[in-house]
Amino acid sequence: MNTDFAPPPRPPAPLLPIVTAFAAGIVLSEVSGPLPAAVCRGALALGALSLAAAAGVGRSGHRRVALALVWLTALTAGILRHQSAVDFGPDHISHFAADDPALVRITGQVLTRPRTDPGRHRNPFLPYEPSPRTRFLLSARTWHTPDRRLPLSGTLQVTVKEAPLSLRPGDLVTITGYLHRPPERRNPGQPDWRRWYRLRGIHALLTTDSAALIETHASPPGPRRWLDEARRRATAALLDPLAADPDDRTRQLLDAMVLGQRSAAGRALDEAFLRTGGLHFLTVSGFHVGVLAGTVWLVVRRLLRRRAATAARVTLLVLALYLLLAEPRAPVWRATLMAAALCLAHLFKRPACSLNWLSLAALVILLANPLELLRPGFQLSFVQVLAILTVTLPLYAWLTAPRRDALAPAARPVETTARVLLRIAGRWSLGLVLICAVAWLVALPLVLLYFQRFAPWGALQSVVISPLVTAVVVLGFLTLLTAPLPIVGALVGGALQAACRLLLATVDRLAALPGTLVETSAPPAWLVAGTYLLAGVALVWWSRAGAPPPAASPPADRAPHGRLPRLLVLTALAALLTAGWGSWPANHARPPAGGLRMDVLSVGNGLTVLLHSRRQAAVYDVGTVHNFDAGQAAARAWRAAGVDRLDRVFISHLNFDHYSGLPTLLGSLPVGELVTNPDAAVALRSGSVPAALRERLPPGGLAVRAVAAGARWQADDWEVAVLWPPADLPPETPVNDRSLVLSVSVAGRRILLAGDADRIALAGLLMRQRAGLVDLRADVLLAPHHGAVIAGVTEPFLRAVSPRWIVVSSARPRPELRHLAGGLPRPPGVLCTAEVGCVRIVVHPDGALDVAPLER
Question: CB-hemisphere CA count at 13 Å for 19?
Fold first, then answer.
């Protein structure tokens, strides 16, 4: 091994700064939003002038000025390309879709194969079986109104509440359903689904209840129909032999890993690969395309003994065919373009220039769709490949270079076959370890930013499963080729099934190990961007340090002084970023001492309330009647707030819309104690709760505390008083009227949490107030029973509380409650989570009160 690790010479990549400037223009355009037409025309003129000036300056020998002008041209080109991509015409679907669903009738062309999501219980306490959902993309063409048809453009996602549909890409259909915009972020820590859809070119959602509302029209054969037929045949050749396989994950694995149908992978398969740090293996990317290209090259070049030009032509043909069969995704295009550039270099006898090919692939993809730059998959793909080309390969070359003090040829041991094979295996293993380690490390900031969870042992686990993934990919491609041959096809198919089972068993075993997945909050975007910027600057400086000095270099005694300031700057930046990453988990916006923050999450018909002060965190109810996990929503919100432990979980009563998320919450964060009413506490301790809850509680049990009216305690700077139920409540009282009603006091303000208190409970609270046993007055009221209005009870209860604000946790607006509140002597503001999403209540240390929807 060479003892001098000199940095590699700067690679010739003239396209790299150009594509960087083009990407910077896309980012600037995204941040600035839609620009006026006059500004776009000015940018176009500026780009044209800078390009013309660059040509003139370049001929005069001012190379740096010419390069700066070229970069300015690329920057303006990026701005203009992004503006053209987001500038929709008046007939675009985005102008017609609104937040409230509207009944429409739309004709369009099917773009993707319908994918069925079987009905599954995301909320295990639902008393009914969720219906399946079938989804596909539709290119809109016509909007039907009662008296005419209007032209329509844009892409929308269609959801049909039925089992699989007999639709194919290219079909022309007319669909009657409800049109609406993708939802915004409604809770802290939740993904921004509207942005997620927009970056994929989807600007509206169309939901229909039945396949009977889809009318299919005759459509002539076209490229989409031919491509779909080719993909269908390839799918049949690969998956039909597995029809009798009881493990459906094998079919999902091959559909995603070989054919590139990423959406085919099920949730369980996604979760298993995520825990092993190998989720990228389920997406056809550079790894898969590289395996395909390398296999074809080796077969033609080594086994068939053909010339390099012939191998390049065959590899280009296979890559082109595969590009048509696979799902059109940025990693597939990037890897295919790079492999094609390598083949063309062999054909035309040009030198290798991987960075330039990577830049060319990025430029082609961004010219086709500039929004790809903003997608996590694109960023992860290019960052990892860039690191492999600029860090891993030079490091591998240094580690495998011969030592300077190596033995003379005559003194070296005889090169036996075993020794040669051992050396080759060692080098392959070293390369695999380096690639997995570097790819995991450089992707980590982006993974934390976009997904808020990572696999700590992902690099090591990728080393283990990479050979198995390679075997599955190679055998999958061979199965496609040998499917027409009865005996050979059966043998290859059997080997493929065995490799899939071994891979799945290995992934399951690795995913079951403790500590395989860590969930955290998202780091600041500036910290992630600064990290990559520093890495890029350091890499450029390192590569320039190893380049041969120019002819007119400064004297040797002055060279170190020129490098010292740059080294000091890099050291200072590295120290700053290290401090930023070290303090990031503690830099969350915690409430100040003496204050309180309360989030009423948007969970539909249900209730989930998060209470957070400087040193205490608690939850009041965590459930919903809808088919999603309220506990997961609460855990995400807590991670976004930097909370890693809950002091108390209050469960008002044992209706599942108030506790359905409890098992997930208990599994996500350590909980000090569970506080509930006396009847619920007895049921929890004795195990007489519903089986769905009993089976999901921690095996070691949890500390349950029963409280009744009159109990109170201090939690940090806020005081909690229990107003209901009384200890002597009759056992036949309905479960809603046993709800735990709490009064939270902080900094002179009071918040009343009423759970599902119904007629008996509200009337009882009014009687206890008249008797002087409780004080119902509050600044903020969490409306009882999701804002339901009870004749003769709700109005006097509101008058007794006299709130400044009423917050309603509900799946639909409550106009009756709003009308009733408007008739009070001091009408309060009313905020409903169905209308505004999560509502945040902040009590400042000086008593100032803020109640508003969460900023989205």
Answer: 20
Nearest to 653 by CA among 631, 674, 689, 680: 680
Of 776, 745, 749, 744, the C-alpha closest to 761 is 776
The 10s digit of each residue's pLDDT in 155-200 is 999 999 887 778 888 889 999 999 999 998 999 988 889 999 999 8
3-state secondary structure 518-530: EECCCCCHHHHHH
Mean pLDDT of 522-531: 87
Distance of CA 533 to the CA centre of its chain: 23
Q: If you average pLDDT over each of 287-291, 336-340, 391-395, 483-487, which comes out highest?
A: 391-395
| In contact, 808 and 606? CB cutoff 8 Å | no
User: Tens digits of per-residue pLDDT, 700-728?
Assistant: 677 899 999 999 988 888 999 999 999 98
Cis-peptide, bond into residue 523, ω within 30° of zero:
no
The amino acid at residue 525 is A
Please give the residue that has the higher pLDDT: either 723 or 274.
Answer: 723
Positive or negative, the CA dihedral 169, 172, 176, 181 is: positive
Return the residue matching tokens 């054919």.
259
C-alpha span between 356 and 352 (Å, rounded): 9
Q: Is 277 left (phi over 0), alpha (psi -120 to 50) or beta?
A: left
Alpha helix positions (H), 105-214: 193-199
CA angle at 189 for the pair 179 and 835, rounded to the nearest 5°? 40
- 3-class SS string, 190-238: CCCHHHHHHHCCEEEEEEECCHHHEEEECCCCCHHHHHHHHHHHHHHHH
Q: Do residues 599 and 839 touch, judged by C-beta distance below 8 A?
A: yes
Sheet holding 829-832, edge to edge: 712-715, 718-724, 741-746, 749-753, 780-782, 805-808, 829-832
Angstrom distance (rounded) from CA 106 to CA 173? 8
Please choose, from the candidates 575, 564, 573, the residue with its C-alpha nearest in 3D space to the C-alpha of residue 538.
573
Count of Cβ atoms closer than 10 Å to residue 262 Cβ: 19
For residues 599 and 613, the answer to whether their CB atoms sit within 8 Å is no
Q: Residue 119 carries which side chain, given as an amino acid letter?
A: G
CA–CA gap between residue 688 and residue 704 (Å, rounded)? 14
Q: N- to C-terminal Cα distance for the chain?
A: 55
CA dihedral for 205, 811, 750, 671, sign (positive or negative): negative
- Rounded Cα distance, 674 and 681, in Å: 9
Q: Which residue(s) pair with 217 in the sheet?
A: 172
H or E element that contains 797:
helix 794-801
Model pTM? 0.84
Tokens read off for 282: 């389920």
Spatial contact of 604 and 810, defined as CB atoms under 8 Å apart: yes
DSSP at 747: T
DSSP string, 576-638: HHHHHHHHGGG-S-PPPTT-EEEEE---SSEEEEEEE-SS-EEEEEEEESSSS-HHHHHHHHH
